[in-house]
Amino acid sequence: MAMARRRLLALASRLHRRAPAPPATEPWRRAPARFISSGALDRLKTPPFARPAARSAASSPWDRFGGGQKRTMFIQTQSTPNPQSLMFYPGKPVMEIGSSDFPNARTAMTSPLAKALFAIDGVTRVFFGSDFVTVTKSEETSWDYLKPEIFAAIMDFYSSGQPLFLDANAAASMDTAIHEDDSEIVAMIKELLETRIRPAVQDDGGDIEYRGFDPETGIVKLKMQGACSGCPSSSVTLKSGIENMLMHYVPEVKGVEQEFDGDEEAELAGQME
């Protein structure tokens, strides 16, 4: 047994001496570079590996609005209580003082921007606020069609450098300006309209215009503008909001009535028929 054991140990020693030592590992050495043949590179440049070509500017759907001119203006929109009216925020001031309403294309001749907006098929009313433009459309026209056209008209106007109004005297409505001959009641009504009521109405894309006060009947006459004109909830705004506030702060006020221009009265009569 002892002799057999010695033989096994000797055999194991000889086998160990014959086995090659494992190569020393050098982790800092990288594997030899594998070069890609020119043919393989050519194959990588063809589909499906090739990067798609950049879209040409001529293929942009906006090119029909400006000949491919690059635009950096970002216009935001906001809905109003009137589903036919939408507010457009160009990110720049619109009216420096007051507001301006264009109930039809005829009244828009003094403003290049309003005129351009009325040139879009389906636009029925335009209103300028301090930092927004409210556009009212006809019921049969879709906003999906109108929005790109309105965006383009607003961007073209601001890039042209034209004034908002051709006649500076027609720029802003000063209906709530307090005059020396105004009575104390009228002055209080105008101040409330300007400081408390007008900002809330403009938040909905519209405005109000003071048309007068009858001291005998206690009726205040107002004209609704922008998105508030023709809005289904305008009567609620007029009675529940404006009338209640005026009657609360000015006891001489007994009610509020809405006035319409001649064209608006004819349009309203046609809708009721």
Structure description:
The chain has 273 residues and is α+β, with helices and mostly antiparallel strands. Helix content is 35%, strand content 16%. The chain contains seven helices and eight strands, in the order ααβββαββααββαβα. The protein has helices at residues 2-18, 38-44, 112-118, 143-160, 184-202, 234-249, 262-272; strands at 76-79, 85-89, 100-102, 123-128, 133-137, 206-214, 219-226, 255-258. Strands 1-2-5-4-3 form a five-stranded antiparallel sheet, covered by helices on one side. Strands 6-7-8 form a three-stranded mixed sheet, with helices on one face. The radius of gyration is 38 Å and the shape is elongated. The model is unreliable at 52-69 and 268-272 (pLDDT under 50).
Could you describe the largest sheet, including whether it forms a barrel?
5 strands, antiparallel
- Topology order in helix (H) and strand (E) letters: HHEEEHEEHHEEHEH
Structural class: alpha+beta
**What is the radius of gyration?**
38 Å
Question: What is the molecular shape?
Answer: elongated
Strand order of the largest sheet: 1-2-5-4-3
Tally of individual helices: 7
Low-confidence spans: 52-69, 268-272
Number of extended strands: 8
**Average pLDDT figure:** 76
Give a short synopsis of this structure.
This protein is α+β, with helices and mostly antiparallel strands and 273 residues long.
What structural keywords apply?
5-stranded antiparallel β-sheet; alpha+beta; 273 residues; 3-stranded mixed β-sheet; 8 strands; disordered C terminus
Describe the secondary-structure layout.
Elements: H1 2-18, H2 38-44, E1 76-79, E2 85-89, E3 100-102, H3 112-118, E4 123-128, E5 133-137, H4 143-160, H5 184-202, E6 206-214, E7 219-226, H6 234-249, E8 255-258, H7 262-272
Parallel strand pairs: 7-8
Antiparallel strand pairs: 1-2, 2-5, 3-4, 4-5, 6-7
Helix pairs in contact: 3-4, 5-6
